[in-house]
Specification:
426 residues, mainly alpha, 2 domains, two-stranded antiparallel ribbon
Length: 426
């Protein structure tokens, strides 16, 4: 409105140079991003990285979906804010305490009261530029105010961006982990490796390095899960594990003396898995909506749910280590003498429900939940400050953020590459 406050001027009284400048900046940034994505896609095509190109297409689809959500929220902002609901319905399932509840706190809650006073001042300033269309009705409040829609808009954007960033970080750390495996791959061309794996050489099964590593104490029911728990943190994949799985894969799919580059194949497999975890499917969007729904003050939903990704990832890591152990036990039970290197027979029976892709789904779910937690933290800090009701226990908030970063490293550097390796012999 032309007669509104200086902070809420319409384009009728806004300098044309200011409008043109803002539009130019937005257009330039958008064109640069679009051009960069196009160049990256061309580079993937030149390098014949089909999976990475498909992953890039998924990212572009997410950006387009984000654009539609942004457009719908922008267009419907005024209409949605005019929808009125009963005041009683507007007082239930709140993420923060009501104002009168805060005022009832004793002197120990003075910090919360000061925060409430700051929020009252902020709401008064906002009320000067936003008309409450429901105030003319008795006991009616807006479904969502225009400022609330704007904050929701920001959260959805931050969530999508963080999921993509976390997925890219997962791919980068996964490939960094696999650089160590490249050295082991190069050793397969050495005379020493060919001698130790001479097909005419016989050995007792229990004397092979792979079987010795995964039998013994680790074969005891119950104890092997404890061994698997700690092994995923320390030497989750050793050289003998990599070379044994490489030999099993080549024996099952190629000629025994093939010069196949197994390391390169694993990298391609990781890229195929990446194009799955980079997307935000409808079930994951639904999960985000459910978590927002249950973020009610006193329920501590985002507190206990922050441990869910950690529990899932630890179970997945243990299961992958158990799969390797079961492969070693099968070799030992199959024969007492090994000719050449021990051979793993590919099978899906080692995985839950005979479906290795269930583990990939759990990794995908873990990455999304972790991205949700980090996005919600940064969004709440940006929108309401670090001392808002979302962070009443600051120490726990800091611990949750640190745990989220550690969880991301564990998933990207250990669990994801381990999954790509183990599933190739399934």
């Amino acid at each position: 409105m032309a007669g509104g406050s200086s902070g809420d001027l319409s384009l009728e009284v806004t300098p044309t140079w200011a409008v043109a400048l803002v539009c130019a900046i937005m257009v330039i940034i958008s064109v640069m991003i679009e051009h960069g994505i196009h160049k990256l896609g061309k580079w993937f095509q030149t390098r014949q990285k089909k999976a990475m190109n498909e992953a890039l297409e998924k990212i572009k689809a997410e950006l387009m979906l984000l654009g539609f959500i942004s457009l719908l929220l922008t267009i419907g902002q005024t209409t949605i804010s005019k929808i009125c609901i009963p005041a009683k319905a507007g007082d239930i399932m709140l993420p923060c305490k009501k104002a009168h509840d805060v005022e009832k706190e004793d002197s120990d809650s003075q910090r919360r009261l000061l925060w409430h006073q700051e929020k009252v001042v902020w709401h008064r300033i906002l009320a000067g530029s936003t008309v409450d269309n429901c105030s003319k009705y008795k006991d009616k409040v807006p479904l969502i105010s225009q400022s609330g829609i704007h904050q929701l808009h920001i959260f959805i954007f931050v969530l999508a961006v963080f999921h993509v960033l976390y997925s890219v970080l997962t791919m980068a750390l996964g490939k960094a982990k696999m650089k160590k495996w490249k050295t082991w791959e190069a050793e397969t061309a050495s005379l020493e490796y060919q001698f130790s794996n001479d097909p005419s050489r016989f050995r007792f099964t229990h004397q092979t390095s792979f079987v010795k590593r995964h039998v013994g104490l680790s074969s005891t029911p119950g104890i092997r899960w404890i061994v698997a728990f700690f092994r995923q943190f320390f030497r989750s994949v050793t050289k003998v594990d990599y070379l044994t799985m490489r030999h099993g894969f080549i024996n099952a799919h190629l000629s025994p003396n093939s010069k196949f580059d197994f390391h390169k194949y694993i990298k391609r497999s990781l890229e195929d898995d990446f194009k799955v975890v980079v997307g935000i499917s409808f079930p994951l969007w639904f999960l985000a909506i459910v978590m927002l729904l249950l973020d009610v003050y006193g329920w501590y939903t985002l507190v206990w749910i922050s441990f869910v990704p950690l529990i899932i990832l630890l179970i997945v890591g243990m299961k992958l280590e158990i799969v390797i152990m079961e492969m070693a036990h099968e070799i030992q039970n199959r024969t007492s003498v090994v000719k050449g290197a021990p051979i793993i027979e590919p099978s899906n029976k080692f995985f839950w429900f005979n479906r290795p892709q269930w583990i990939l789904f759990l990794i995908h779910l873990t990455l999304f939940e972790n991205a949700f937690q980090m996005a919600h933290f940064l969004w709440s800090v940006y929108s309401f400050g670090l001392k808002s009701c979302f962070h009443e226990n600051l120490a726990f908030t800091v611990a949750k953020v640190i745990m989220g970063l550690a969880l991301q490293f564990l998933c990207s550097y250990i669990t994801f590459p381990l999954y790509a390796l183990v599933t190739q012999v399934s």
